[in-house]
Amino acid sequence: DSDDTSAGVTFSLAEADLALFSIDSETGRVKLTGNPDYETQSSYSFTVTATDAAGNHSSQSVTLGVNNLNDNTPKFGTGTVLQNIYRADEVSSLSVQANGKILIAGSSSDGAASIFSVIRLNTDGSLDTSFSTDGKVLQAVGNRDDAGHSMTLLADGKILLAGTSDNHFGLLRLNTDGSLDTTFSEDGKLTYGVGKSDVGNSVAVNTGGEILMAGTSDGKFNVVKFTGSVEVDTGFQTNFANIPAVYGNCNSVRFTPDGQHILLAGTSLETGTSTAITLVQLNLDGALDTTFGTQ
After folding, report:
1. Contact between residue 22 and residue 30 where contact means Cβ atoms under 8 Å apart
2. What three-state secondary structure class fits 100?
3. Tell me, what DSSP letter sits at residue 53?
4. Which of 16, 30, 108, 148 is deepest in the core (most CB within 10 A)?
5. Which one, of 261, 225, 216, lies nearest residue 243 by Cα?
């Protein structure tokens, strides 16, 4: 209003975040004097006040949002991660989830007894504290020493671990957050005896949810099949007569890609002191596939 103004209008800043901005008192142009950082503050605000010579004034509040750009200086690690779970740790299996997080499974001991153990790491190698609150799971399956030997990731993201517990086959299933999956065998844990001394070395799951657990029972190859409801498949032949000529250690089990057969791999000793790589193919009922192999 020209009747109220005897000189030009001046501009000033007020309110919060003034340290990051300056204003030209004559033109009202606002400039940044620093670098806004999303990680420090996601938005910044200030108020511009215009005042004429008569003391009349008007104010306008302004808020600026900051985009979350990757402006951090790249940092490189040593390429190695050393992580203790318990006093004595052994690693048997490694899996990487679709989101890049890393699962490492095995056994951990205090020197007196061992139990199944799993850790989950972020993609930078740090412990993922969203997994069991501290990134680590220590879980006994049976009443005596446990040894985790194999791990597989299920289609729904759950984690299935296999090994030995109480001298028998042992299974443990975890939810994606590391908690026990109590929909599995009521408490998330299962032990199953085949012989007097069983060692569970490997686990595989097909698209129907059936579980194969393979290893060694009383010094011979053996494999057990569980249904999707975690019941032993009684139609699956599990006796030692399935593989009459093989004495040794079964280390790995897989369904064939077409889902029609089961492969077992390990080492065997038939005569003398020499061991041999041994591959056995079974039909889905556990019987030897006599169309496979030459001897």
Report:
1. yes
2. coil
3. T
4. 148
5. 216
DSSP per position, 234-286: TTS--SGGGSTT--EEEEEEEE-TTSSEEEEEEEE--STT--EEEEEEEETTS
- Return d(Cα 129, Cα 120) in angstroms, integer: 8
Q: Give residue 62's identity as a one-letter amino acid code.
A: V
Give which of 196, 193, 242 is closest to 213, Cα–Cα.
193
Q: How far apart are alpha carbons 246 and 220 in whole angstroms?
A: 7
How far apart (Å, rounded) are the C-alpha atoms in residues 233 and 285? 9
Distance, in Å, from the CA atom of 216 to the CA atom of 140, rounded to the nearest integer, reads 21
Please report the beta strands in the chain, taking only residues with DSSP state E, as ranges in sequence order: 10-14, 21-23, 30-32, 43-51, 57-65, 88-96, 102-109, 114-121, 136-139, 146-153, 159-165, 168-174, 189-192, 198-205, 211-217, 220-226, 248-255, 261-268, 276-283
Token pair for 259: 């889902």
User: The tokens 């889902």 sit on which residue?
Assistant: 259
Distances (CA, A) of 274 to 113, 125, 271, 293: 33, 42, 7, 20
Q: Print pLDDT tens along the chain (295 aa).
A: 444 443 578 878 776 566 777 787 877 787 777 777 665 777 777 787 878 788 788 877 777 776 654 454 544 467 777 777 777 788 999 999 999 999 999 998 866 788 999 999 999 888 999 999 899 999 999 887 889 999 999 999 999 999 999 889 999 999 999 999 999 998 999 999 888 888 999 999 998 899 999 998 888 888 899 988 888 888 887 654 445 555 788 899 999 999 999 999 988 876 666 778 888 899 999 888 889 886 5
Q: State how far the Cα of 214 lies from the Cα of 221, in Å rounded to an integer.
A: 8
* Distance of alpha carbon 43 from alpha carbon 80, whole angstroms: 38
